[in-house]
Specification:
The chain is an all-alpha fold. The protein has two domains: 1-206, no CATH class; 208-388, no CATH class. It is built from 15 helices and two strands. It has a two-stranded antiparallel sheet. Strand 1 (160-161) and strand 2 form a beta hairpin. Helix 3 (30-52) runs antiparallel to helix 4 and helix 3 packs antiparallel against helix 7 (167-204).
Length: 388
C-alpha cells in the first residue's frame, strides 16, 4: 500500500489543492512555509491597516492591535502551532494504523474486515465534502453578519471606531479569523475520523491479551497516538489565555474570578481528548473478565498442585531434596506475577504518562496568567512559603 494509505491528513480537498499547486513536491519543510504564509496573510495586513489608524502600539485607555492578547495568541501562536504540529501528529497516527495491520491484534481471517474499515476511513478522508463543509463553517459567522469582533465593553478597540468597523476589523473578520477557524476545523475533522476508526475497531474482532506487559491488552499504542491531538487543547488554551489576559488587564477582572472557567477548560479539554479511547472500554472489559476467569481456574489447579507437592516434600523426611530445588516454586511465582498483571489491566488504553501528555498542553498556556495576576516577587514568596 502507498505511504498515504495509513495517513489521516494526506488526503482531502486541501491536500489535493496543495498537490496541484506543486507545494508538496517543492520543499521538505512545507509546514514551516505554510505556517509562514498564513501568518503573512492573516497578520501583516492587520499591522498595516491598524497602523493607518494609529492603533498598533499599546497605550492606556485603549486596546490596540499589539495590546490585544487574544488576537496575538490566536494568530501568532495557536495558528502556527496547529500547522507545525500536523506532520508530527500524522507520522505517529500513521504508525498506529500500520501497527493495527502488522501486529497480532487481528486474526488473519479477519484482516479483510480491518482493511475494509481502513478503506472506509480513507474514503471519508479523501472526500471533498467534509472539507468544503469546514470552509463554509469557517465563513459562516461573517456570512450571517454575526458579531465576530467581540470588543470589550467600554474599551476602545482597534477593530471598531465610533461604532463602525475599521478596515483592520474587516480584514480580521473576513480573512484572519476564517483562516484560523479553517485550520482548527481541519484538525477537528481528523479527530473525528480517528474517533470513527476507534468506534468501529471492535467490530473487526480484536484479539487482545490481558496479560500484555503494557497493561492495556496491547492497545497502549493507540493512547500514545491519541496524545498527538493534544495540540487542539493547547491551541484552545492559548486562545482562552489571551482572552483572559484582555479581561484582566482592561477590565480589572481578578484571576480568582476566572478560576472556574480555567479549571473547567483544562478538565473538559482533557476529557474530550480521552473520550474516543473510551469506545474501546467494553472490549477491554470483556478481555479482562475472560482472562481472569481463565487464569482463576488455572490458578486453582496450580495452587493445588503446588500445595500437594509441598506437603509431600514436607512429610518425606528421608528425602534430601527440597521443593525449592525444583522449578515448581519459580513457575508458581511467575504465574502469580502474570495473574497480578492481569488484575491490574486498565480498561482504557491510557497510561498515567499519556494522560499527563494530554493534560499538560491544555494547562501550560494558562500559566502566564499567574504572572500577570501577581508580581514575580509575590509568586516566589508564595511558593517559598508553601515549600518551606
Amino acid at each position: 500500500m502507498s505511504q498515504d494509505s495509513y495517513s489521516l491528513m494526506r488526503g482531502g480537498l486541501v491536500h489535493r489543492l496543495l498537490r496541484a499547486s506543486g507545494a508538496l513536491h517543492g520543499t521538505r519543510r512545507l509546514s514551516w512555509w505554510l505556517a509562514g504564509a498564513l501568518l503573512v496573510v492573516a497578520f501583516v495586513p492587520l499591522l498595516l491597516l491598524a497602523g493607518r489608524g494609529d492603533m498598533v502600539w499599546p497605550r492606556s485607555q485603549a486596546m490596540t492591535l499589539l495590546g490585544d492578547y487574544a488576537t496575538l495568541f490566536r494568530l501568532l501562536l495557536a495558528l502556527p502551532l496547529l500547522v507545525l504540529a500536523a506532520p508530527r501528529a500524522d507520522a505517529l497516527l500513521h504508525g498506529a494504523l500500520r501497527q493495527l495491520t502488522h501486529a497480532s491484534l487481528v486474526h488473519p481471517r479477519r484482516q479483510p474486515r480491518l482493511q475494509a474499515l481502513l478503506s472506509s476511513i480513507r474514503r471519508w478522508r479523501d472526500s471533498r465534502w467534509p472539507e468544503l463543509a469546514c470552509i463554509v463553517l469557517a465563513l459562516l459567522p461573517v456570512l450571517l453578519h454575526a458579531d465576530v469582533v467581540g470588543p470589550l465593553g467600554g474599551v476602545p478597540d482597534w477593530r471598531d471606531h465610533a461604532g463602525v468597523m475599521t478596515p483592520a476589523g474587516y480584514w480580521y473578520a473576513w480573512v484572519a479569523m476564517p483562516l484560523f477557524r479553517l485550520v482548527a476545523l481541519l484538525w477537528l475533522w481528523r479527530f473525528l475520523l480517528w474517533a470513527m476508526l476507534l468506534a468501529r475497531l471492535p467490530s473487526v474482532g480484536l484479539t487482545l491479551h490481558a496479560e500484555h506487559p503494557d497493561r492495556t491488552g496491547g492497545l497502549a499504542f493507540l493512547g500514545v497516538a491519541q496524545e498527538r491531538f493534544s495540540m487542539l487543547g493547547a491551541a484552545g488554551a492559548l486562545v482562552v489565555s489571551g482572552a483572559c489576559l484582555n479581561h484582566m488587564i482592561y477590565l480589572d477582572i481578578p484571576l480568582h474570578a476566572l478560576r472556574h472557567l480555567l479549571a473547567g477548560y483544562v478538565i473538559g479539554a482533557t476529557l474530550l481528548l480521552v473520550a474516543p479511547l473510551l469506545l474501546l472500554t467494553p472490549t477491554l472489559i470483556r478481555a479482562r473478565r475472560h482472562a481472569l476467569y481463565r487464569f482463576s481456574a488455572l490458578g486453582n489447579r496450580a495452587a493445588a498442585s503446588f500445595d500437594d507437592r509441598w506437603k509431600a516434600a514436607s512429610e518425606d523426611t528421608a528425602s534430601t531434596e527440597s521443593l525449592l530445588d525444583h522449578n515448581d516454586a519459580s513457575a508458581f511465582a511467575d504465574f502469580s506475577a502474570v495473574y497480578q498483571g492481569t488484575t491490574a489491566m486498565s480498561v482504557v488504553p491510557v497510561t498515567r504518562w499519556t494522560l499527563m501528555g494530554m493534560a499538560l498542553p491544555t494547562l501550560v498556556p494558562l500559566l502566564p496568567l499567574a504572572l500577570v495576576a501577581m508580581s514575580v516577587d509575590d509568586l516566589v514568596a508564595k511558593l517559598a512559603g508553601m515549600l518551606i
